[in-house]
Amino acid sequence: xxxxxxxxxxxxxxxxxxxxxxxxxxxxxxxxxxxxxxxxxxxxxxxxxxxxxxxxxxxxxxxxxxxxxxxxxxxxxxxxx
Length: 81
Hints:
There is one protein chain. By secondary structure, the protein is of the alpha+beta class. The protein is built from 1 helix and 4 strands. Helix content is 16%, strand content 25%. The strands form 2 sheets. A two-stranded antiparallel sheet has the order 1-4. It has a two-stranded antiparallel ribbon with strand order 2-3.
């Protein structure tokens, strides 16, 4: 499996699909990778966040909210199909 290879195709006739992630928006501080999604409790980047989370939902706003909320779970995030 190549990192540039698609895992599948999702066809939508309605609703929305969003991806939240820190693959591109991050920085390194003292050798530690910090993403741009902040934990509202600490004000610091979410520790051990997945690189990205993609959600399909009935509305784009709902999908965006859920993908960001999943990122906030950090290491506790789960993968669902």
